[in-house]
Amino acid sequence: MQTSHVQTFHCASHGLTDTGNVRSHNEDALLDAGAAGLWAVADGAGGHDRGEVASQMIVQELAQLKPQVFLGEQAQAVSACLQAVNARLISMRALPGSQGIIGSTVCVLLVHGKHSVCLWAGDSRIYLLRGGKLQQLTRDHNRMEEFLAAGFSEADLHKYPAARQLVRAVGVTSPLPLEMQMQECCAGDCFLLCSDGLSGELEEAEITAILQAGPSVQATVEQLVQAVLARRARDNVTALAVRLENPTDANMTP
């Protein structure tokens, strides 16, 4: 858990990851570096423990980044870091005994001053709860849009596993096709970074209700993960919440 002061806001954050009820090991990883205004979730893929190698490499390298004076510079540093990890994962395919792609999704949140930046590749998501309304800031990099364009209804997409096939991830192609979005922040904003093990199990209305009701970011995250575990939880599940508060607010503890 981290509590930090980032110019205009105090950021209270907490993350939790769980293997789930079906998988034998956890290929998700998270980074809660609130003092640097940086948070990330990575969801590895590649069979056996190879996905875990990719997701852990991502968060370990991001954790080594030094804070920059300007948000744009910090976003560039994150992008360069992820490109370097991408190149390393691709090169690992040539090693003796390699069994193909070692990859991972990633979503990163940066908060500095009055603005935030989201960077991502894959289907790990970043949500923003503001004024009681939940907004998905990221766009899933999978084949869903192709299926919708072909005339499939959104309600029926769960019947077609191929629709969730990733079209972007760290460790797949070079250069890494990252997507980035900047937004202005407000006091009271609550961001949620999560793997698809959470977003695939909970409806947005459920996520909204838990984010609103949680007395703290720690309680919120625990309630989100427990809500998934109470179901089948076929995948690993990871949740990382970040709440922004004014420095003058009385309640500034996680």
UniProtKB/TrEMBL annotation:
<dbReference type="Pfam" id="PF13672">
    <property type="entry name" value="PP2C_2"/>
</dbReference>
<feature type="domain" description="PPM-type phosphatase">
    <location>
        <begin position="13"/>
        <end position="244"/>
    </location>
</feature>
<dbReference type="InterPro" id="IPR036457">
    <property type="entry name" value="PPM-type-like_dom_sf"/>
</dbReference>
<dbReference type="InterPro" id="IPR015655">
    <property type="entry name" value="PP2C"/>
</dbReference>
<protein>
    <submittedName>
        <fullName>PP2C family serine/threonine-protein phosphatase</fullName>
    </submittedName>
</protein>
<dbReference type="InterPro" id="IPR001932">
    <property type="entry name" value="PPM-type_phosphatase-like_dom"/>
</dbReference>
